[in-house]
Amino acid sequence: MFGINGPEFILLLIIGVLVIGPSRLPEYTQKLANLVKEVRRMASGAREQIKEEVGIDIDEVDWKKYDPRQYDPRRIIKDALLDDDTKPVSAGAPAVAATAAAAASVETKPKAPARVIERLAEGEAAPFDTEAT
What is the pTM of this model? Predict the structure, then answer.
């Protein structure tokens, strides 16, 4: 809490008791207790108001589903690329479905046309577009 560990907190309490003094300590302790009760009441009221307006209980929400860290674009792309699109065919499937599934699993890549590189003639100036610069 606020980067304060146990011994530091006890030291702050002792300094607070010395600064406030024993005569006003019960009054401030009561004020602190009332403040804690009020904050708890407000939190409870906010929880009930959300439940009434939204219609769901906050404790029942799966917060992991809304964690933005799960939407890492690199992971999503990797999962999509490694995802196997072919589904296994059950043993009781007709032979036609099994051969269709086997044919679908064999990927045939269409060959791309050979890239044609045009070379300039010896001493010919490269084209220059004045509007592009």
Answer: 0.36
